Amino acid sequence: MAGTNAPLGTPTKVTQGSQTKGGIGESTLRPDGTLKVTGEFAYSSDMWHEDMLWGQILRAPVAHAEIVSIDTSEALAQAGVYAVMTYDDLPTDVRHYGLEFPDTPVLAHGRVRHHGEPVAIVAADHPETARRAAAKIKVEYRELPVITDELTATAPNAPLIHEDRTDHYAGHVEHPNILHRQPIIRGDVEEARHRADFIVTGEYTFGMQDQAFLGPESGLAVPAEDGGVDLYIATQWLHADLRQIAPVLGLPEEKVRMTLSGVGGAFGGREDLSMQIHACLLALRTGKPVKIVYNRFESFFGHVHRHPAKLFYEHGATKDGKLTHLKARIVLDGGAYASTSAAVVGNAASLGAGPYVIDNVDIEALALYTNNPPCGAMRGFGAVQACFAYEAQMDKLADKVGMDRVEFRRLNAMEQGTIMPTGQPVDSPAPVAELLRRVKAMPLPPERQWESSEGADVRQLPGGLSNTTHGEGVVRGVGYAVGIKNVGFSEGFDDYSTARVRMEVVGGEPVVTVHTAMAEVGQGGVTVHAQIARTELGVTQVTIQPADTQVGSAGSTSASRQTYVTGGAVKNACELVRERVLEIGRRKFGTYHPAWATAELLLEGGKVVTDAGEVLADLADVLEDEAVEVEEEWRHRPTEPFDRHTGQGFGHVQYSFAAHRAVVEVDTELGLVKVIELACAQDVGKALNPLSVVGQIQGGTTQGLGMAVMEEILVDPKTAKVRNPSFTDYLIPTILDTPTMPVDVLELADAHAPYGLRGAGEAPTLSSTPAVLAAIRKATGLELNRTPVRPEHLTGT
Amino acid sequence: MRVNFTVNGRPQEADDVWEGESLLYVLRERLGLPGAKNACEQGECGSCTVRLDGVPVCSCLVAAGQVEGREVVTVEGLAEYARQRDAGCRSGSCGTSLDEAQRWAAHGTDSQTGEGTQLSPVQQAFIDAGAVQCGFCTPGLLVAADEMLERNPTPTDEDIREALSGNLCRCTGYETIMNAVRLAAARQSEAV
């Protein structure tokens, strides 16, 4: 539909030429690699259109307030301003949106519930004009008391964040400021507690982490002649966006045509809408293309964060080291709007016991509505917070029992056949003990690496070039952790993907085109889709079409699911194409050779061959001018919801496991930490692209490191305002903060999954943080019940 | 205001530039060179790194007016810059030989995939080592890494980390970036 009206930077199809022969299992290189290293790859913020305007959002400067009045007249009067819109200008009665249920206003209506909530939008001919005009909108606020934690949320006279809730969780929570609560109850904790020789308890605090993807929220909306809009956007799930956008615009879905532009990372932060509706509204209002690009400050307000959490854990063990029971309470702060909080609760609860055999479990997880920033999806999704707590508990309990910390974990490790606290059997390999063994067996980095003949190389010491120590006061610690993450959408969600695969002969060569709506956010899905097509259809040339809404939904690029689910859909569509091609071949040539009827036939090297390797025909002769095209949905096996009272149910598709060993050196006088090495062992079932798999593991590990020692969005508990929305004040690991990360990849096939693969992207983010914390505890002897750890926590100052 | 400067060896003129615009904005929005990226626009992330008279700078922190009469190299010009450096020239001062021009014309590139594009050693190494995921940090890292290898053809790991410490990457955990720079350095030294 873009046609001649296509803006600059419109995605084009990516063809990987015949020099690449790789099928699955090979580390084929990214098809978009050359474009990305030459600066030619068009990200959503690179889009440009003649006559385009720039959109700007005015956001609330306070966390909780009644809007008394809004005056846009002065803003509208500015030269270069084309439109100013508030809630009252929205075109239809649908004025809220949300991933699970629509509780989020497109623009604030009478009240703002968190710092940075969108209140008005402006379109102007220069971004600075738009910014200045937005600043001229006069909004009068009457501030309301803020709810910032469980105590204030459930106090007797607490103001309700959302009055008159009608969502499907509202009926079974104890208080309207509790969004959702999920218990998991199995066995008899009271009885088991009596059998425990040792009991350890802990109260843990997990800070608010930001995805901090580098490409800011951005996109371009181009109004179309048919009254619709073409939206070029960076997102994790085109069709979920579409479902939320179209009703607000008052357009049928087919008139909102979405194309995935280059995505500068995601990590969960692009699951929810950001500027999509705002750009479309302004484009339709002005009749001109509108581009919106957040700056970093706005990006911190423009997407949900990882839920901060309070976790209360009690574990027991017998004197021979067997776990007796677990009692846990996990309180997640969901902030002002629901986002995916309910699903995060489900994960935190169902994975809250970790990868261990525990027969007696009483867990409850809940998410609060507060006036803090909304929280939702981030890599690890509820399993991360729990892992931080249960792994701290495992160390404490091992010490109490008097066992080696790794051996204690191995003794209690789950394996294939273990029954989860939800009653679900783990029905594929769960090599928890083996991962721990492997990560422990890796050689340790040598001590005092900083010493050289020329004295201390301060770059290898805590504090680095700040030159704060030459080794004095520096203590080493080693820590271990392991975690469990679900793969795919859970709790009965219809988690499907769609693939369209076409085979035809071009210039005498068979060529395959793969079209899906999968959001490539950097993970390398496009690489893997081409590999699957080569493996299944025996061609070298595979073209990956840009992801858009002209093909069925691929589901979200999250939950470690895309290689499994959209990869599965591509594999399935390829198999159907292969069947059709073979039918054509049988029709044309079947009478010439009996093998057409009797043998197992494959497509290899552009030919139809028998499983014994005999060539029956060239694909060029089979297909001639005919093209074979299949579009088909594909589903993994179904799951079921957790019972509301007991949490029992076949809730998850697949589990994924990683273990880490962290080696840290701590300057105990200044409280500075240097992570020296962060080793990981992970089972991925089957590494379709080993280079990409290792990249995922190292990237996830590093985000866990950030959570351990650097990253936290600080929200003022008195005002619920964000204090550090910038890369100056919110620190993510640099190349100096990030150590060597040796990776050991296991491939134990899961018989339920395509090629036996296991989703890989999230598990490494879980165990990285607690491993680093364990290492710092070992070095300092401190209890450290919160993450991230800051210098003052280590020095007591 | 009007700003005249050289980008990737070509003279450029930007008109109607507002005084508050950064070099990054002018490159991206006025000159059609979006390779330098806009991840933080406050000099913390390095994704907008370009070379200004040879020195790596965050182009978001350079006011457009400051580049009047100066030379800028962006990621879009990196391959050519590296090629001319290898040929013993600096900043395009010795031009393109007829032989080279013919080779370039005969080679051609694929506008859809960039296949056939001439890459600098560090660009090729980033692809080969798997150092590119989402790719948003890549242009800035390439400019910074290329400049370091120009100064220091045989860097230690600590040298690489120090040189690239101003460039944030959120996808890779930097291990493959380290591998890429080591690879580029090794290939460079083999070629000498």
From TrEMBL, chain A:
Residues 38-145 form the Aldehyde oxidase/xanthine dehydrogenase a/b hammerhead domain. It comes from Streptomyces ureilyticus. This is Molybdopterin-dependent oxidoreductase. Residues 1-31 are annotated as: Disordered. InterPro entries: Ald_Oxase/Xan_DH_a/b (IPR000674), Ald_Oxase/Xan_DH_a/b_sf (IPR036856), Ald_Oxase/xanthine_DH-like (IPR016208), AldOxase/xan_DH_MoCoBD1 (IPR008274), AldOxase/xan_DH_MoCoBD2 (IPR046867), AldOxase/xan_DH_Mopterin-bd_sf (IPR037165). It comes from the Bacteria.
TrEMBL record, chain B:
It comes from the Bacteria. Residues 1-78 form the 2Fe-2S ferredoxin-type domain. The keyword Chloroplast does not apply. This is (2Fe-2S)-binding protein. Pfam families: Fer2, Fer2_2. InterPro entries: 2Fe-2S-bd (IPR002888), 2Fe-2S-bd_dom_sf (IPR036884), 2Fe-2S_ferredoxin-like_sf (IPR036010), 2Fe-2S_ferredoxin-type (IPR001041), 2Fe2S_fd_BS (IPR006058), Beta-grasp_dom_sf (IPR012675), Diverse_Oxidoreductases (IPR051452). Keywords: 2Fe-2S, Iron, Iron-sulfur, Metal-binding, Oxidoreductase. PROSITE patterns: 2FE2S_FER_1, 2FE2S_FER_2. The keyword Iron applies.
